[in-house]
């Protein structure tokens, strides 16, 4: 049952094959078994069981709230949850219990979803590995998969298995690990420059960044307000569409949400053919650092579309090379501003020093933030200084406009969706990952995702090492349904294999009862 | 905090000075109207002729002062600028604080429509250009009563710009003449207010109230002095002036301080100062705020504020979702300058009287109500309202609404005067009685106190006769053509009538009897 998709388990609930409480308990037990993954910061067991009980009553009375009623979900720990600690994986917010729910959390609860817990991340979502949070790094469930283990046995150089685990990518690594390890059916991430898509690619999941303005940010503790979007992590495209249907829509508490009415629910048609589609391949995304495996899968995916009748053309996004540095300036500037409220006065951490308010601020912020956060605050304040503002912030804004126009031009030239890699390579071992600093890693890992407004990462195939590789589809803003429809067609063609975690969990029968040993059409 | 504020930057008000006798005495001259000075302007400044109150000695430099005001005025709205929490005067501390007001992580600002409308209306009333698109910015500084670490304001593209306000300045020998002047308004911006800090120095604690619904007006004054024809001087900013009186005092003090400083070879620092109202002087504020870099940044959580007018209003737009400038213009009440002009034209009133009528809350309405109910001439009404009535109010420090005399009572009194039922001195007496708030009408007071003018010709003739008999010497003086003597007789008769007789009538009778 746990291995099923959200849609499938929803049907099972409706048919009474399983009750919400049974489902909730199975997930809770799996959360305990996979605790070493460090996917969750807080497990809201009592809340979830209570919600399950209420859901069960509704099912009994024939008053189900819909597809999400009774479905276990997890939420990244940078979304405010009423009465549940929300830490952003930072010392600064340890012990902070928000008095309100983020709009997206409230919407999921209103639909009857069960909140299993709050998931791990890089501190304040600043990172691409989920390795830089105060609660420690998140381990990629694929490290323990049969697929990866078998490949490793063939490798005579593999040494200590336990220390050789892989990162999930990030910053929404906890959410990705939670869904990937079957502890829930969907999870909220946040995506600013790739924070949902990147871990989705590394954990073999669908990772979706909806159009900015489609989903409310109210209650999401911001990284970059002008780019943050609540992200969705699921095991298949249809599931992402169900969750999007529950979340999308204007919010009077978020003035940047758009007021256009939205087609609900987000039902995705099954495309019979793609002959009317035009797929764009951005030539600038073919960078030297791209692993040959990813490159090969990317071109095979393009071939697949072409062979099925789609028009596949090369397009140019000429300002791509500026996106990392542009993002750096805008991101750190907003970070400097957004982090100003964490001063130890009203909530969160406060140091013991009380000689003056200023001394208290300084010590609180030194103790509360890690080096990455402090570094970004420092850079951001530098860029915002009167003498630097024009040269950095204003220029970066102009470059952002040019980059955004690149996409608009591509779409206006007749392209329906762009097809790109999500990451340079598959997930790397933690020990490998931490050889570079956070900034370098983020710049590399988010190279294909940073400049993008609306996009979805789809798991495509396993690498030679037996690890997932994802490809990214980028759509025109507010054409989310169209993008997901194309992604769904592609997903069906590639038949990405289910993660095999038998060695990890004794309870393999429960996990694998629905296992599909599907053929992989895009084999290396 | 987050009480909605309107911020007006008034620029270019300027005083001119003449140094007198080499001492430190100075006089404030009339502010020059419609100057084009920019107090922060580094560009060349068009100099206006200086109005100096006193002549300057040869070889002495004149000083000119340039003053710009940043006026923080609280918008009268039910809820705060960016949150739904209420605005209420004297509510218990921190009782009106939403999650946004407390800057809880993840909360977002939502613009209050009423505040935007108030800002547009203010802009229209002050002859501003209303920007169809305006933007919000974050202004950063760390302070305990600023929980977000930044304040949302409109730095780059405010809601209204380039306005003007006509005001009156007293001039002439007795300061009785009012000269209309114009001050230019650089911009009007919507700004979130910060919280309020209460410092407890004894316990080294600071208490913070995030309600911030007090203090409707706060002014920061930027002041510099220079020699006319030379570049503008270095300015100082005197912050947090919360009354007009302190504002004037602080400006006067600061101008004189700067002149003294410069004349003694010192220099003016670009700094923030505070006004000590007990000592009546300004002092340098030791905090670094004056030199602080506010690191302005666009507010990413608020889209541009777009306003419409009749021509740009999209077809089928939801009136709840858009703000129509023309619609607000229609609801604009008559502006004071128009009212003043009407008063001058309709009642032949002096311009300075019209200023006085409008400067006192409720006085114009009182005046108009009296006019409506009385047959007396408007000039008479004006004189009574501005001299007698306002005089009594001022003397007892009362507001118009607290007056013991109603417009109807004054109207009745003026009718009695107009019909010559009572003399004007009797009228003053009646007014004084009315002020005692004993619930009597002017008519009742007149009859109780027997203040009616004597209309009985025979009785009056009899009285005149008696007086003439009693004062033969004065009668002789009159006959000897002493022109003042008749007035003495009139006075004596009036006294005998307890001032109830009309002096004109008495004079006629006396002249007849004396065969003059």
From TrEMBL, chain B:
EC number: 6.3.5.-
Compartments it resides in: Mitochondrion
GO cellular component, one term: mitochondrion
UniProt domain Asn/Gln amidotransferase: residue ranges: 365-514
SUPFAM superfamilies named in the record: GatB/YqeY motif, Glutamine synthetase/guanido kinase
Biased composition (Polar residues): 32-45
Sequence segments annotated as region (Disordered): 26-45
Protein keywords: ATP-binding, Ligase, Mitochondrion, Nucleotide-binding, Protein biosynthesis, Transit peptide
Catalytic activity of the protein: L-aspartyl-tRNA(Asn) + L-glutamine + ATP + H2O = L-asparaginyl-tRNA(Asn) + L-glutamate + ADP + phosphate + 2 H(+); L-glutamyl-tRNA(Gln) + L-glutamine + ATP + H2O = L-glutaminyl-tRNA(Gln) + L-glutamate + ADP + phosphate + H(+)
One GO term of the biological process aspect: mitochondrial translation
Annotated GO MF terms: asparaginyl-tRNA synthase (glutamine-hydrolyzing) activity; ATP binding; glutaminyl-tRNA synthase (glutamine-hydrolyzing) activity
Top-level enzyme category: ligase
Annotated Gene3D superfamilies: 1.10.10.410
Function comment: Allows the formation of correctly charged Gln-tRNA(Gln) through the transamidation of misacylated Glu-tRNA(Gln) in the mitochondria. The reaction takes place in the presence of glutamine and ATP through an activated gamma-phospho-Glu-tRNA(Gln).
Oligomeric and partner information: Subunit of the heterotrimeric GatCAB amidotransferase (AdT) complex, composed of A (QRSL1), B (GATB) and C (GATC) subunits.
PANTHER family: GLUTAMYL-TRNA GLN AMIDOTRANSFERASE SUBUNIT B MITOCHONDRIAL AND PROKARYOTIC PET112-RELATED (PTHR11659), GLUTAMYL-TRNA(GLN) AMIDOTRANSFERASE SUBUNIT B, MITOCHONDRIAL (PTHR11659:SF0)
Family: Belongs to the GatB/GatE family. GatB subfamily.
Protein name: Glutamyl-tRNA(Gln) amidotransferase subunit B, mitochondrial
Species the sequence originates in: Homo sapiens (Human)
């Amino acid at each position: 049952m746990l291995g099923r998709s959200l849609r499938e388990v929803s049907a099972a609930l409706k048919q009474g094959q399983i009750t919400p409480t049974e489902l909730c308990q199975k997930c809770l037990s799996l959360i305990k078994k996979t605790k070493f993954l460090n996917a969750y910061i807080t497990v809201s067991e009592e809340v979830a069981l209570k919600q399950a009980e209420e859901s069960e009553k509704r099912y009994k009375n024939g008053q189900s709230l819909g597809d999400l009623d009774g479905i276990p979900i997890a939420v990244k720990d940078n979304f405010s949850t009423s009465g549940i600690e929300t830490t952003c994986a930072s010392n600064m917010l340890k012990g902070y219990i928000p008095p309100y729910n983020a709009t997206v959390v409230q919407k999921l609860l209103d639909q009857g979803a069960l909140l299993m817990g709050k998931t791990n991340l890089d501190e304040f979502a600043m990172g691409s590995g989920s390795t830089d949070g105060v609660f420690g790094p998140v381990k990629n469930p694929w490290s323990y998969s049969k697929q990866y283990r078998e490949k490793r046995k063939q490798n005579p150089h593999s040494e200590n298995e336990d220390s050789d685990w892989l990162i999930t990518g990030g910053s929404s690594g906890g959410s990705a690990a939670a869904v990937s390890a079957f502890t829930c059916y969907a999870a909220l991430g946040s995506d600013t420059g790739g924070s949902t898509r990147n871990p989705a690619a590394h954990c073999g999941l669908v990772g979706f960044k909806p159009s900015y303005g489609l989903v409310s940010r109210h209650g999401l503790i911001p990284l970059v307000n002008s780019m943050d979007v609540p992200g969705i992590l699921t095991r298949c495209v249809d599931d992402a569409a169900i969750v999007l249907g529950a979340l999308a829509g204007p919010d009077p508490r978020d003035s940047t949400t758009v007021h256009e009415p939205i087609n609900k629910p987000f039902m995705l048609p099954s495309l019979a053919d793609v002959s009317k589609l035009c797929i764009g391949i951005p030539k600038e995304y073919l960078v030297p650092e791209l692993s040959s495996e990813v490159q090969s899968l990317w071109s095979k995916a393009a071939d697949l579309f072409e062979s099925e009748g789609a028009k596949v053309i090369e397009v140019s996004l000429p300002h791509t090379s500026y996106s990392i540095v542009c993002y750096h300036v805008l991101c750190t500037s907003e970070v400097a501003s957004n982090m100003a409220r964490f001063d130890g006065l009203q909530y969160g951490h406060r140091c013991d020093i009380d000689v003056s308010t200023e001394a208290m601020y300084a010590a609180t912020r030194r103790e509360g933030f890690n080096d990455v956060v402090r570094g970004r605050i420092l850079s951001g304040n530098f860029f915002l200084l009167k003498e630097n503002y024009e040269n950095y912030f204003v220029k970066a804004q102009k470059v952002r406009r040019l980059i955004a126009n690149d996409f608009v031009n591509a779409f206006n030239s007749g392209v329906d969706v762009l097809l790109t890699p999500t990451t340079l390579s598959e997930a790397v071992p933690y020990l490998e990952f931490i050889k570079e600093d956070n900034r370098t890693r983020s710049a590399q890992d988010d190279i294909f995702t940073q400049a993008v407004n609306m996009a979805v990462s789809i798991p495509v195939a396993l690498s030679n090492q037996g690890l997932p590789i994802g490809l990214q589809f980028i759509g025109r803003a507010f054409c989310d349904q169209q993008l997901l429809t194309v992604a769904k067609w592609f997903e069906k063609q590639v038949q990405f294999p289910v993660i095999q975690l038998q060695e990890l969990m004794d309870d393999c029968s429960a996990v694998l009862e629905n296992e599909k040993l599907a053929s992989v059409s895009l084999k290396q | 905090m987050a009480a909605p504020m309107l911020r007006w930057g008034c620029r270019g008000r300027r005083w001119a000075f003449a140094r007198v006798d080499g001492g430190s005495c100075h006089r404030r001259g009339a502010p020059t109207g419609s100057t084009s000075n920019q107090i922060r302007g580094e560009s060349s400044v068009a100099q206006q002729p200086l109005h100096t109150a006193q002549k300057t000695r040869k070889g002495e430099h004149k000083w000119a002062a340039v003053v710009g005001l940043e006026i923080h005025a609280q918008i009268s709205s039910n809820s705060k600028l960016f949150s739904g929490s209420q605005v209420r005067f004297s509510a218990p501390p921190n009782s009106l604080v939403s999650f946004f007001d407390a800057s809880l992580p993840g909360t977002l600002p939502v613009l209050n429509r009423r505040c935007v409308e108030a800002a547009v209306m203010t802009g229209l009333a002050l002859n501003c250009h209303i920007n169809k698109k305006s933007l919000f910015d974050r202004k950063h500084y760390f302070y305990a009563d600023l929980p977000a670490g930044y304040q949302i304001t409109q730095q780059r593209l405010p809601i209204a710009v380039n306005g003007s306000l006509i005001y009156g300045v007293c001039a002439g020998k007795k300061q009785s003449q009012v000269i209309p002047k114009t001050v230019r308004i650089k911009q009007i911006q919507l700004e979130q207010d910060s919280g309020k800090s209460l410092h407890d120095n004894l316990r080294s604690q600071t208490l913070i109230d995030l309600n911030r619904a007090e203090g409707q007006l706060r002014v920061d004054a930027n002041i510099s002095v220079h020699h006319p024809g030379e570049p503008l001087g270095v300015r100082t900013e005197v912050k947090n002036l919360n009354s007009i009186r302190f504002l004037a005092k602080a400006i006067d003090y600061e101008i004189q301080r700067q002149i003294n400083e410069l004349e003694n070879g010192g220099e003016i620092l670009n700094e923030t100062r505070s006004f000590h109202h007990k000592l009546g002087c300004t002092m340098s504020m030791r905090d670094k705020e004056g030199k602080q870099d506010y690191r302005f940044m666009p507010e990413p959580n608020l889209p541009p504020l777009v306003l419409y007018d009749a021509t740009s209003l999209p077809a089928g737009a939801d009136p709840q979702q858009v703000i129509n400038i023309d619609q607000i213009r229609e609801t604009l009440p008559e502006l004071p300058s128009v009212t003043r002009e009407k008063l001058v034209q309709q009642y032949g009133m002096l311009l300075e009287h019209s200023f006085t009528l409008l400067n006192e809350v409720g006085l114009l309405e009182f005046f108009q109500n009296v006019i409506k109910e009385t047959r007396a001439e408007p000039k008479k009404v004006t004189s009574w309202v501005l001299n007698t009535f306002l005089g009594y109010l001022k003397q007892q420090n009362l507001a118009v609404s607290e007056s013991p005399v109603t417009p109807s009572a004054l109207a009745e009194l003026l009718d009695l005067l107009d019909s010559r039922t009572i003399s004007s001195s009797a009228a003053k007496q009646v007014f004084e009685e009315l002020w005692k708030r004993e619930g009597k009408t002017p008519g009742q007071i007149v009859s109780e106190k027997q203040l009616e003018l004597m209309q009985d010709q025979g009785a009056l003739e009899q009285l005149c006769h008696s007086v003439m008999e009693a004062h033969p010497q004065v009668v002789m003086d009159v006959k000897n053509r002493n022109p003042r003597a008749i007035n003495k007789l009139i006075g004596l008769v009036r006294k005998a009538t307890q001032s109830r007789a009309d002096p004109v009538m008495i004079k006629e009778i006396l002249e007849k009897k004396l065969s003059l």
